[in-house]
C-alpha cells in the first residue's frame, strides 16, 4: 500500500502546475556576464560568427598568431589555422605570471576525509616536475599516454604534463575493466600507462594497478607504467617497467619548457561506445577545443573567477570532466572542487557537506545524481548550508521536469538558475544550453543553441520539422571544439556522423522543439521504442513515471513482444515511504497512459531498490535491455554494485500487466 505523498513531492507538483517558465531574477541579471539577448543575433551571421570566435580566441595566449579562423570541407574542419599555443601554459603559466599564483585551483577532498588545497602556483610546479619525469622516460611530442586513475590531483597533473610535452593523453575511467583498458591502450599504441595502486569507493579500495597490469599484459606497446601511491595496498611490481610517481618527480626541476603546438595538433583521445564492440577513439585538437571549452564554461556558467567556487561533480574520466573540471575551468582561472568518492558516502549528504564546507557557488551534476538525491529527500541535507549556491547545472542526459524543479527548489533554494546542457564527447563543448542572465527557463528543456551554433530538428528525409514537431537533432555549422575524427578510422567517422544527412552532423539524439523554439532533448534514438507502430521515447515514459509522487527514479527499455513488436518495460525506484504492490503497479501504468496516451501504457512495472549504474552514476541501459530480454549479461565489472543485477533478475518475472 502507498502512504501519503511526501511534502516535497506535493510542492514540486504544485510548482510545475503553477510555474511553466522561470525568468532570471533581477539580482542575478545585475551581475551576469551576458545581459544582452542580441548576442544570438550577432553570432548568427557568418561575419558575426567569425567575430565571436575571433574575440574568444584573443582571450588565449598564442605563441604564434593564427592566420585564418577556420576552413570547412565537410566533414573536416580546421580552426585557428597556423596558430601555435600550449594548453598547459594557458591553464597555468599565464595565470601565475599575471599574479594569480596564490589563487586556489582545486580544493580536493578524498573519500576517507583527507584534503589538499592546491594553488595555481602549486599546480604549475607539480605539472612541470612531472613533465620532466615523463621526458626522462622518453615521452615526446606525438606519443600517446594512457591515464587510468582515481579522482586525485595527480590525474589533472598527468593530463596537463602530457599537454606540456605535446603527447596526446587517453584518459580511461577508473571504473572500466582491464579488458576495456587494454582495448584503448592497443588502439592508440600507448607507450606509457599512468595509474595508482588503487582508489577509494564507498569504503572499499579499487585495485587499479592490478587491472592495469592485466591490461598491459595483453598489449605490446607499453614501455613504462607510472604508479601513484594512494591506498597503500600491496601491488605486483615489474622493476623493468614500473615506477613510483613520487620517486620520479622527487628532485625534478619546477621549470619545464612547453612544446609549441599547432592549433590542429592532437590534444587527447577519449573513447566512447558505439554500435559495434570496438570503442571509438574521439580525436580533439588543441586550439579549437580550448577556445570552445573556455568560452562555454565562462558564459554558460556565468563564471566570476575572483569569487566563484565551482564544482562539476563528474568524473574526469568522462568528457564532462575533461572539458569542465580541467581545461575550461583552468583556462578561466577558476577555483574548483574535486571529490574522490561517491556523493552519498559515508552519509547521504556527503555532497552537501562538501559544498557547504567550501562554500560552492556553482554545482554541475547529472540528472541520475539529482534523482538519487530526490529519493533520499531534502531532509537528508537539511542541516547543510547551501546558501552560497547561485547557479546549478545539469549534464549527461535529458532531465525530466520534476527532477529539474526539485533541483531548483530544494538544492538551489528557488534562487539559482538551472543551466541544462546538451552536448557529447564528440562535440567537446556544450552546444545547447541557457545563458543564465538572459534565458527564461522551462523545466526539462535545454532551451537554445549556444551563440553561433546552428542546430535543426529534421525528419527521416532530412527536412526541417516546423516548430511544435519532433525528429532528429542535427548540427549545420562547424564549431571550434568539434571532433576531428575517429583515431585510425576516418571511414567510420564519416559513416557514423556524416552519412545520414551529408554535410550535417548527425547527433543520434531525438529532439522536439516547442512553438517558441525551445529544444527538448529526448535521448538517443536507439532509446526509441516502436509499440504497435507508435514511436515512443523512453525519456517520455520515464518523465511520466517520475512525475508520480511515489516514484524517485525510473528507467525504461523496449522488450520484444510477439503482438506489438515491442512492449514497454519499466524499472522503478520508489521514494521513501512508499511500498511496492500490484495496486501501485497498476496505478503507475494508468498514470503513464493518462500522461502520454493509452498506446504508451507500460506492459511491465518492475520495482527495484536500485539500478545498474557505472561508478560515475550512468545507468547501464544495455544491461536493463538484456535483463528484460532474458539474455546473458556479459561484462558487469564497470558497475558500482554488480549485485544489483542479480537482485533485479530475481524480480524480473513479476509485475506484468
Structure commentary:
The chain is of the alpha/beta class. Among the domains are: 117-270, Rossmann fold; 532-651, 2-Layer Sandwich (GMP Synthetase, Chain A, domain 3). The protein has 20 helices and 29 strands. The strands form eight sheets. It has a seven-stranded mixed sheet, sandwiched between helices. Strands 12-11-8-6-7-14-15 form a seven-stranded mixed sheet, sandwiched between helices. Strands 21-22-23-24 form a four-stranded antiparallel sheet. Helix 1 (7-18) crosses helix 15 and helix 6 (120-136) packs across helix 7.
Biggest β-sheet description: 7 strands, mixed
Number of strands: 29
User: Major sheet: order of its strands?
Assistant: 5-4-17-16-18-19-20
Q: Structural class from helices and strands?
A: alpha/beta
CATH architect. name of the domain at 117-270? 3-Layer(aba) Sandwich
Please count the helical segments: 20
Task: Please summarize what this structure is.
This protein is an alpha/beta fold and 657 residues long.
List the helices and strands and how they pair.
Elements: H1 7-18, H2 26-31, H3 38-44, H4 46-57, E1 68-73, E2 76-81, E3 84-85, H5 87-100, E4 104-109, E5 115-119, H6 120-136, E6 144-148, H7 154-165, E7 168-171, H8 178-188, E8 192-196, E9 199-201, E10 204-206, H9 208-217, E11 224-228, E12 242-244, H10 245-249, E13 261-262, E14 266-272, E15 280-285, H11 287-300, E16 309-312, H12 319-331, E17 335-339, H13 350-358, E18 362-365, H14 367-376, E19 391-394, H15 401-411, E20 418-420, E21 455-458, E22 470-475, H16 490-497, E23 505-513, E24 519-524, E25 528-531, E26 534-537, H17 538-546, E27 551-561, E28 565-574, H18 582-595, E29 604-607, H19 621-629, H20 643-651
Helix pairs in contact: 1-15, 3-4, 5-6, 5-7, 5-12, 6-7, 8-9, 11-12, 14-15
